[in-house]
Amino acid sequence: MQYRHLGKHGIKVSEVSLGSWLTYGNATAEATAKACVEKAYDLGINFFDTANVYAAGRAEDVMGRALGAYSRSSYVLATKVYFPMGGGPNDRGLSRKHIFEQCHASLKRLDTDYIDLYQAHRYDTETPLEETLMAFNDLVRQGKVLYYGVSQWSAGQIAHATDITRMGNLHPIASNQPYYNAVGRDLEKEVMPLCGREGIGLVVYSPLAQGVLTGKYKPGQPLPEGSRASDPSQNMFLNQGKLDEAVLEKVQKLQPIAERNGLTMSQLALAWCLRRPEVSSVIIGASRPEQVEDNAGASGAKLSAADIEEMDAALA
Protein backbone atom coordinates (compact mmCIF):
# COMPACT_ATOMS: atom_id res chain seq x y z
CA MET A 1 0.00 0.00 0.00
CA GLN A 2 1.23 3.46 -0.88
CA TYR A 3 0.34 6.67 0.95
CA ARG A 4 -0.27 10.26 -0.02
CA HIS A 5 -0.49 13.52 1.87
CA LEU A 6 -3.99 14.82 2.46
CA GLY A 7 -3.57 17.82 0.19
CA LYS A 8 -0.91 20.18 1.53
CA HIS A 9 -1.15 18.77 5.05
CA GLY A 10 1.32 16.59 6.90
CA ILE A 11 -0.99 13.66 7.54
CA LYS A 12 -0.69 10.72 5.14
CA VAL A 13 -3.55 8.47 4.06
CA SER A 14 -3.55 5.22 2.12
CA GLU A 15 -4.26 5.58 -1.59
CA VAL A 16 -7.18 3.21 -1.12
CA SER A 17 -9.50 3.79 1.84
CA LEU A 18 -12.45 1.84 3.20
CA GLY A 19 -15.87 3.45 3.57
CA SER A 20 -19.11 2.30 5.14
CA TRP A 21 -21.85 3.93 3.06
CA LEU A 22 -24.76 1.53 2.30
CA THR A 23 -22.88 -1.36 3.88
CA TYR A 24 -21.84 -1.48 7.54
CA GLY A 25 -24.65 -1.32 10.04
CA ASN A 26 -27.07 -1.86 7.17
CA ALA A 27 -26.78 -4.42 4.36
CA THR A 28 -23.63 -6.11 5.65
CA ALA A 29 -23.56 -8.22 8.82
CA GLU A 30 -21.26 -6.89 11.54
CA ALA A 31 -19.05 -9.98 11.47
CA THR A 32 -18.49 -9.48 7.74
CA ALA A 33 -17.88 -5.77 8.22
CA LYS A 34 -15.28 -6.57 10.88
CA ALA A 35 -13.61 -9.04 8.51
CA CYS A 36 -13.44 -6.35 5.81
CA VAL A 37 -11.86 -3.86 8.22
CA GLU A 38 -9.36 -6.48 9.36
CA LYS A 39 -8.43 -7.32 5.77
CA ALA A 40 -8.04 -3.63 4.94
CA TYR A 41 -5.82 -3.01 7.96
CA ASP A 42 -3.69 -6.06 7.17
CA LEU A 43 -3.20 -4.77 3.62
CA GLY A 44 -1.94 -1.41 4.85
CA ILE A 45 -5.13 0.62 4.47
CA ASN A 46 -4.99 3.22 7.24
CA PHE A 47 -7.88 5.47 6.22
CA PHE A 48 -11.45 4.58 7.24
CA ASP A 49 -14.46 6.74 6.38
CA THR A 50 -17.96 6.79 7.82
CA ALA A 51 -20.73 9.29 8.68
CA ASN A 52 -23.19 9.83 11.49
CA VAL A 53 -26.14 9.46 9.11
CA TYR A 54 -25.04 6.10 7.67
CA ALA A 55 -27.57 3.58 8.97
CA ALA A 56 -28.65 6.19 11.54
CA GLY A 57 -25.41 5.92 13.52
CA ARG A 58 -25.01 2.16 13.30
CA ALA A 59 -22.18 2.41 10.77
CA GLU A 60 -20.15 4.45 13.25
CA ASP A 61 -20.91 1.89 15.97
CA VAL A 62 -19.70 -0.97 13.76
CA MET A 63 -16.62 0.89 12.54
CA GLY A 64 -15.68 1.90 16.07
CA ARG A 65 -15.90 -1.66 17.38
CA ALA A 66 -13.95 -3.06 14.42
CA LEU A 67 -11.13 -0.53 14.76
CA GLY A 68 -11.00 -0.90 18.53
CA ALA A 69 -8.58 -3.80 18.14
CA TYR A 70 -5.86 -1.53 16.76
CA SER A 71 -3.66 1.23 18.11
CA ARG A 72 -5.49 4.53 17.68
CA SER A 73 -2.42 6.21 16.23
CA SER A 74 -2.14 3.60 13.46
CA TYR A 75 -5.19 4.66 11.45
CA VAL A 76 -6.97 7.77 10.22
CA LEU A 77 -10.66 7.95 11.08
CA ALA A 78 -13.09 10.19 9.20
CA THR A 79 -16.76 10.90 9.78
CA LYS A 80 -19.29 13.56 8.77
CA VAL A 81 -22.06 15.85 9.94
CA TYR A 82 -24.99 17.63 8.22
CA PHE A 83 -27.95 15.34 7.51
CA PRO A 84 -30.89 15.00 9.93
CA MET A 85 -30.24 12.88 13.01
CA GLY A 86 -33.61 13.57 14.64
CA GLY A 87 -36.93 15.29 14.15
CA GLY A 88 -36.13 18.58 15.87
CA PRO A 89 -35.40 21.87 14.08
CA ASN A 90 -31.78 21.82 15.26
CA ASP A 91 -31.12 18.15 14.51
CA ARG A 92 -29.68 18.89 11.07
CA GLY A 93 -27.43 21.25 9.15
CA LEU A 94 -24.15 22.94 10.02
CA SER A 95 -25.08 25.22 12.89
CA ARG A 96 -22.64 25.43 15.77
CA LYS A 97 -25.16 23.59 17.95
CA HIS A 98 -25.64 20.66 15.57
CA ILE A 99 -21.93 20.33 14.75
CA PHE A 100 -20.89 20.24 18.41
CA GLU A 101 -23.66 17.88 19.48
CA GLN A 102 -23.07 15.49 16.62
CA CYS A 103 -19.30 15.56 17.11
CA HIS A 104 -19.80 14.40 20.69
CA ALA A 105 -22.31 11.75 19.57
CA SER A 106 -19.90 10.46 16.91
CA LEU A 107 -17.02 10.32 19.38
CA LYS A 108 -19.16 8.18 21.65
CA ARG A 109 -20.31 5.82 18.89
CA LEU A 110 -16.78 5.51 17.50
CA ASP A 111 -15.42 5.00 21.03
CA THR A 112 -12.55 7.40 20.51
CA ASP A 113 -11.22 10.63 22.01
CA TYR A 114 -10.76 12.42 18.70
CA ILE A 115 -11.74 12.37 15.02
CA ASP A 116 -8.90 12.66 12.53
CA LEU A 117 -11.03 14.18 9.76
CA TYR A 118 -14.46 15.71 10.43
CA GLN A 119 -16.36 16.61 7.26
CA ALA A 120 -19.32 18.83 6.40
CA HIS A 121 -21.42 16.26 4.52
CA ARG A 122 -23.10 18.94 2.38
CA TYR A 123 -23.28 22.74 2.22
CA ASP A 124 -25.81 24.39 4.54
CA THR A 125 -27.56 27.34 2.89
CA GLU A 126 -29.43 28.16 6.13
CA THR A 127 -26.37 28.72 8.34
CA PRO A 128 -23.81 31.53 7.92
CA LEU A 129 -20.63 30.02 6.54
CA GLU A 130 -18.60 31.88 9.15
CA GLU A 131 -20.52 30.11 11.94
CA THR A 132 -19.84 26.70 10.41
CA LEU A 133 -16.13 27.34 9.91
CA MET A 134 -15.70 28.77 13.40
CA ALA A 135 -17.36 25.68 14.88
CA PHE A 136 -14.97 23.37 13.03
CA ASN A 137 -12.03 25.60 13.98
CA ASP A 138 -13.00 25.45 17.66
CA LEU A 139 -13.25 21.65 17.58
CA VAL A 140 -9.72 21.56 16.15
CA ARG A 141 -8.48 23.90 18.90
CA GLN A 142 -10.12 21.67 21.52
CA GLY A 143 -8.37 18.59 20.13
CA LYS A 144 -11.61 16.74 19.40
CA VAL A 145 -10.93 17.05 15.68
CA LEU A 146 -7.50 17.12 14.01
CA TYR A 147 -8.50 18.18 10.49
CA TYR A 148 -11.80 19.16 8.90
CA GLY A 149 -13.12 18.98 5.38
CA VAL A 150 -16.18 19.23 3.17
CA SER A 151 -18.13 16.94 0.87
CA GLN A 152 -19.92 17.75 -2.37
CA TRP A 153 -19.43 21.52 -2.09
CA SER A 154 -19.30 23.57 -5.28
CA ALA A 155 -16.17 25.41 -6.38
CA GLY A 156 -17.76 28.72 -5.42
CA GLN A 157 -18.64 27.47 -1.94
CA ILE A 158 -15.15 26.11 -1.34
CA ALA A 159 -13.52 29.31 -2.64
CA HIS A 160 -15.69 31.44 -0.33
CA ALA A 161 -14.77 29.23 2.63
CA THR A 162 -11.03 29.42 1.90
CA ASP A 163 -11.26 33.22 1.76
CA ILE A 164 -12.93 33.27 5.19
CA THR A 165 -10.36 30.94 6.75
CA ARG A 166 -7.51 33.09 5.44
CA MET A 167 -9.01 36.39 6.57
CA GLY A 168 -9.97 34.99 9.96
CA ASN A 169 -6.72 33.08 10.47
CA LEU A 170 -8.73 29.87 10.95
CA HIS A 171 -7.52 26.33 10.43
CA PRO A 172 -7.79 25.64 6.68
CA ILE A 173 -10.04 23.14 4.97
CA ALA A 174 -7.99 19.96 4.61
CA SER A 175 -10.12 17.84 2.29
CA ASN A 176 -13.05 17.57 -0.06
CA GLN A 177 -15.02 14.35 -0.58
CA PRO A 178 -16.69 14.49 -4.01
CA TYR A 179 -18.18 11.99 -6.44
CA TYR A 180 -15.59 11.08 -9.09
CA ASN A 181 -14.95 8.21 -11.48
CA ALA A 182 -14.19 7.53 -15.13
CA VAL A 183 -17.83 7.98 -16.16
CA GLY A 184 -18.50 10.88 -13.78
CA ARG A 185 -15.89 13.57 -14.38
CA ASP A 186 -17.62 16.89 -13.66
CA LEU A 187 -15.16 17.41 -10.81
CA GLU A 188 -12.40 18.15 -13.31
CA LYS A 189 -14.03 21.37 -14.58
CA GLU A 190 -13.79 23.65 -11.54
CA VAL A 191 -13.55 21.83 -8.21
CA MET A 192 -10.42 19.78 -8.91
CA PRO A 193 -8.31 22.73 -10.15
CA LEU A 194 -9.43 24.85 -7.18
CA CYS A 195 -8.61 22.13 -4.65
CA GLY A 196 -5.25 21.61 -6.32
CA ARG A 197 -4.40 25.32 -5.98
CA GLU A 198 -5.59 25.49 -2.38
CA GLY A 199 -3.90 22.27 -1.25
CA ILE A 200 -7.21 20.60 -0.40
CA GLY A 201 -6.91 16.84 -0.71
CA LEU A 202 -9.59 15.05 -2.73
CA VAL A 203 -10.96 11.90 -1.11
CA VAL A 204 -13.24 10.64 -3.85
CA TYR A 205 -16.24 8.38 -3.37
CA SER A 206 -17.92 6.00 -5.84
CA PRO A 207 -14.68 5.56 -7.83
CA LEU A 208 -16.20 2.39 -9.33
CA ALA A 209 -19.49 4.16 -10.19
CA GLN A 210 -21.44 1.89 -7.85
CA GLY A 211 -19.90 -1.17 -9.49
CA VAL A 212 -20.51 -0.18 -13.11
CA LEU A 213 -16.77 0.09 -13.80
CA THR A 214 -16.06 -3.39 -12.42
CA GLY A 215 -17.49 -4.86 -15.61
CA LYS A 216 -19.83 -7.18 -13.71
CA TYR A 217 -22.90 -5.63 -15.30
CA LYS A 218 -23.04 -6.95 -18.86
CA PRO A 219 -25.04 -5.27 -21.62
CA GLY A 220 -28.16 -7.23 -22.50
CA GLN A 221 -27.80 -9.61 -19.55
CA PRO A 222 -29.75 -9.92 -16.27
CA LEU A 223 -28.34 -8.23 -13.20
CA PRO A 224 -26.04 -10.54 -11.22
CA GLU A 225 -27.82 -12.03 -8.23
CA GLY A 226 -26.77 -10.34 -5.00
CA SER A 227 -25.30 -7.31 -6.76
CA ARG A 228 -25.97 -3.77 -5.56
CA ALA A 229 -28.01 -2.98 -8.67
CA SER A 230 -30.36 -5.88 -7.94
CA ASP A 231 -31.14 -4.51 -4.46
CA PRO A 232 -33.75 -1.70 -4.56
CA SER A 233 -32.49 -0.34 -1.21
CA GLN A 234 -29.00 0.28 -2.64
CA ASN A 235 -29.40 1.08 -6.33
CA MET A 236 -30.62 4.68 -6.13
CA PHE A 237 -27.62 5.72 -8.24
CA LEU A 238 -28.07 2.90 -10.73
CA ASN A 239 -31.35 3.98 -12.31
CA GLN A 240 -33.35 1.73 -10.00
CA GLY A 241 -31.83 -1.35 -11.58
CA LYS A 242 -32.13 -0.17 -15.20
CA LEU A 243 -28.51 0.38 -16.11
CA ASP A 244 -27.62 2.37 -19.22
CA GLU A 245 -26.84 -0.19 -21.91
CA ALA A 246 -24.69 2.31 -23.84
CA VAL A 247 -22.50 2.91 -20.79
CA LEU A 248 -22.19 -0.83 -20.11
CA GLU A 249 -21.05 -1.41 -23.69
CA LYS A 250 -18.39 1.29 -23.34
CA VAL A 251 -17.14 -0.19 -20.07
CA GLN A 252 -16.59 -3.57 -21.73
CA LYS A 253 -14.03 -1.89 -24.00
CA LEU A 254 -11.82 -1.33 -20.96
CA GLN A 255 -11.20 -5.05 -20.43
CA PRO A 256 -8.22 -5.30 -22.85
CA ILE A 257 -6.58 -2.30 -21.18
CA ALA A 258 -6.91 -3.91 -17.78
CA GLU A 259 -5.57 -7.25 -19.01
CA ARG A 260 -2.44 -5.87 -20.64
CA ASN A 261 -1.64 -3.98 -17.43
CA GLY A 262 -2.19 -7.07 -15.28
CA LEU A 263 -5.09 -5.39 -13.49
CA THR A 264 -8.66 -6.31 -12.74
CA MET A 265 -11.34 -3.95 -14.03
CA SER A 266 -11.82 -2.57 -10.51
CA GLN A 267 -8.10 -1.90 -10.14
CA LEU A 268 -8.02 -0.17 -13.52
CA ALA A 269 -10.86 2.16 -12.54
CA LEU A 270 -9.22 3.03 -9.22
CA ALA A 271 -5.83 3.57 -10.85
CA TRP A 272 -7.50 5.92 -13.33
CA CYS A 273 -8.73 8.09 -10.42
CA LEU A 274 -5.36 7.94 -8.69
CA ARG A 275 -3.60 9.18 -11.83
CA ARG A 276 -4.46 12.69 -10.64
CA PRO A 277 -2.12 14.17 -8.02
CA GLU A 278 -5.03 16.14 -6.54
CA VAL A 279 -6.58 12.84 -5.41
CA SER A 280 -5.33 11.80 -1.98
CA SER A 281 -7.39 8.61 -1.70
CA VAL A 282 -10.20 6.65 -3.33
CA ILE A 283 -12.92 5.36 -1.01
CA ILE A 284 -14.07 1.84 -1.70
CA GLY A 285 -17.12 0.06 -0.34
CA ALA A 286 -16.82 -3.65 0.33
CA SER A 287 -19.19 -6.33 1.53
CA ARG A 288 -16.57 -9.09 1.32
CA PRO A 289 -12.89 -9.19 2.32
CA GLU A 290 -12.01 -10.42 -1.18
CA GLN A 291 -13.28 -7.14 -2.61
CA VAL A 292 -11.01 -5.21 -0.26
CA GLU A 293 -8.01 -7.27 -1.35
CA ASP A 294 -8.79 -6.77 -5.04
CA ASN A 295 -9.30 -3.02 -4.70
CA ALA A 296 -6.20 -2.54 -2.57
CA GLY A 297 -4.19 -3.93 -5.48
CA ALA A 298 -4.77 -0.67 -7.34
CA SER A 299 -2.36 1.19 -5.08
CA GLY A 300 0.85 1.94 -6.91
CA ALA A 301 -0.52 0.93 -10.32
CA LYS A 302 0.68 3.30 -13.02
CA LEU A 303 -1.19 3.81 -16.27
CA SER A 304 0.61 5.12 -19.34
CA ALA A 305 -0.55 8.20 -21.20
CA ALA A 306 -1.65 5.86 -24.01
CA ASP A 307 -3.72 3.78 -21.58
CA ILE A 308 -5.48 6.86 -20.25
CA GLU A 309 -6.10 8.20 -23.74
CA GLU A 310 -7.59 4.87 -24.79
CA MET A 311 -9.82 4.75 -21.72
CA ASP A 312 -11.05 8.29 -22.33
CA ALA A 313 -11.82 7.46 -25.95
CA ALA A 314 -13.68 4.28 -25.02
CA LEU A 315 -15.87 6.08 -22.48
CA ALA A 316 -16.41 9.29 -24.45
From TrEMBL:
**Mind listing the GO molecular function terms for this protein?**
oxidoreductase activity
Entry's Gene Ontology cellular component terms: cytosol
Q: Would the keyword Metal-binding turn up in this protein's UniProt record? A: no
Q: Name one Pfam family in it.
A: Aldo_ket_red
The segment(s) forming the NADP-dependent oxidoreductase domain are: 16-315
- Is Metal-binding included in the keywords of this UniProt record? no
Matching entries from InterPro entries are given as:
K_chnl_volt-dep_bsu_KCNAB-rel, NAD(P)_OxRdtase_dom_sf, NADP_OxRdtase_dom
Q: Which GO terms describe its biological process?
A: monoatomic ion transmembrane transport
Alphabetical keyword list: Ion channel, Ion transport, NADP, Oxidoreductase, Transport
Q: Which family does it belong to?
A: Belongs to the shaker potassium channel beta subunit family.
Please report the name of this protein according to its UniProt entry. Potassium channel beta chain
Organism equals uncultured Armatimonadetes bacterium
